[in-house]
Amino acid sequence: MLRTFRIAALAAALIIPATALAQDTPKDDPIGDLISKAVEVFERVTDLKLRATLYHAGAKGVGGRDSLGCSVVPMRTLAVDPRIIPRRSIVFIKETVGLMMPNGQPHDGVWYASDTGGAIKGAKVDLYTGSGSGSMRQFFDRRINAAVLNAVKIGTFNGCPPR
Asked: Which of 25, 48, 113, 140 is the most exposed place for a label (fewest CB within 10 A)?
């Protein structure tokens, strides 16, 4: 769906330049408004290639709070370099779709950039897996630890990430 949306947004950008939309679109033009919004979103969406590592509760230096002061959330909290991915970003990571969440449901690939770490520099992320090293097993089974993942920033959040 994201790919289809990006293609549509690109087509709109090629047909009608965004600057022309901003200057020439009448105030009551819903189609022009829709195209403008699509171009805006297209310009913000960027595919990222990120090297992933894992962390869990119980490991040395891992606390129960992220860098925003919120509780870390298993299979949702993402530690980032804020120069690459701003904190409070919602990030879709394709390779995590289908992993089992703590509640037994399949993961939808959505992570919340609410943490940072001293070792997280550049195009690297740290995925919070939950409590104990056993919570990382499914990541190892899929060879996600130390792998390059495909990620897309899909939005932002306010406050603390949802639990």
From this structure: 140
Instruction: Please state the φ and ψ torsions of residue 57, each to the nearest 5 degrees.
Output: -65, 140
Query: pLDDT per residue over 6-58, tens digit each?
Result: 444 434 444 444 444 445 445 677 776 666 555 454 445 568 899 898 887 76
Question: Would you tell me how many other CB atoms lie within 10 Å of the CB of residue 158?
Answer: 5
pTM value surpassing 0.90: no
- pLDDT per residue over 88-109, tens digit each? 999 999 999 999 999 999 999 9
Q: How far is CA 132 from CA 46, 129, 143, in A?
A: 33, 8, 18
Reduce the DSSP state of residue 118 to 3 states and report it: coil
Per the CB < 8 A criterion, the answer to whether 80 and 111 are in contact is no
Q: 149 vs 60, 85, 93, 106, 152, CA distance in Å?
A: 25, 14, 7, 18, 10
Domains parsed from the chain with CATH numbers: 2-44 (no CATH), 47-156 (2.40.40.10)
